[in-house]
User: What shape does this take?
Amino acid sequence: QVQLVESGGGLVQAGGSLRLSCVASGIVFSINDMGWYRQAPGKGRELVADITTGGSTKYADSVKGRFTISRDNAKNTVYLQMNSLKPEDTDVYYCSNRGVYWGQGTQVTVSS
Assistant: This one.
């Protein structure tokens, strides 16, 4: 059974930081490209950051310079370090292996 379990969300003031984690099981994590996505109510899911099996990364323009994606294959975990958070970063954040499987999401709320 495949599971992607996100954690680390919460309520933070603007300018603050959070680190999201996503632990994968049931897949060979090291051969999966992984990504973080976010979705606001009534809107589509958008890619926030992506990391390949080789460690190459890409980011949405809105988070470049503020967010960092990383992975630890030994722990089957992908991380999203979020700094300088803004109210517009408020969303439910999901991890996924390029849309094949999805986690349940973790809520991030940034207050102004």
Notes: The longest strand covers residues 18-25. The mean pLDDT is 96.
